[in-house]
Amino acid sequence: MLTKVFPIATGRQRSFTPEGNFQVVNKQVNPPYYKKNIPGGSPWNPLGPRWLGLSAPGGAYGIHGNSNPASIGTYASDGCIRLRNEDILWLFDQVTVGTPVSIVWQDVGFEQYLVDNTPVKVYFNNQELPPEFRTFSHQDKPFIPLKQLCSLMSYQINWNSQANSIDISTPAAQICFNPDSKTLLINDQPIELADPPLIMDGISYVTQSTMETFFPVEVNWQAATRQLYLTTKPEMIEEIQKPQLVSSINPQFWQDADWLP
Q1: Is-catalytic flag, 80?
Q2: pLDDT tens-digit profile of 97-151?
Q3: Which of 16-20, 25-29, 140-144 has the lowest mean pLDDT?
Q4: I need a surface site. Which of 53, 146, 237, 238 has the fewest CB within 10 A?
Q5: Among this protein's residues, is 138 annotated catalytic?
Q6: DSSP annotation string for 121-171
Q7: Which of 64, 138, 150, 176 is catalytic?
Q8: Phi/psi at 13 (nearest 5 deg)?
């Protein structure tokens, strides 16, 4: 499950950075740069504040920080994978020795590699939604646009710019969460999610497990036919007028609804 996306720098030539499936074999805080005898922690150390060593053969390859932020997003290294220092600090705390690492070469953009945009037919209480209900899949998991879903459920949703959080008001609960966090608050009680919300092109998406955590709805994903059925639970059906939901939606709403992630 995708949690975060970081810009990186890789080898000056494609052959410099090894491709394949590896593992994290060691972790170092403030690694020294032996090649030029630069001590760990120095602002001139090209390895930055953290090092995740990889099992790739042929040399000491790792994922690390850097002393040249302008190199991020370019082909600049001797083969290692550079991250911004703030990004490697976050990643270092999430990763354990033994974590699998896949390094692949892609001739397409990351978003195209990440998602399957083959059209998905979405049904809400057995009524087909317009194609503007932008749903995609990744690794056979459907990703559902959160704001459009809240509109179907007649829930209020707001973006809290100060807290960098999404706030949802339902008849039964106040829900608050951050797009990159697996923890959400339901009536101020923390709940751990299996999948954090994902932001793609400025729109927040949630997976089936996340949606079923705080929405009174059942999700039936039929990957073979790319059909997604969203069905409100019996106690909610009387509160949601099925025929009016889709017929009353102005198609322009789906195109103008990007003010909230």
Answers
A1: yes
A2: 999 999 987 655 555 566 777 899 999 999 999 988 888 887 788 988 999 999 9
A3: 140-144
A4: 238
A5: no
A6: EEEETTEEPPTTS--EEETTEEEEEHHHHHHHHT-EEEEETTTTEEEEE-S
A7: 64
A8: -125, 155
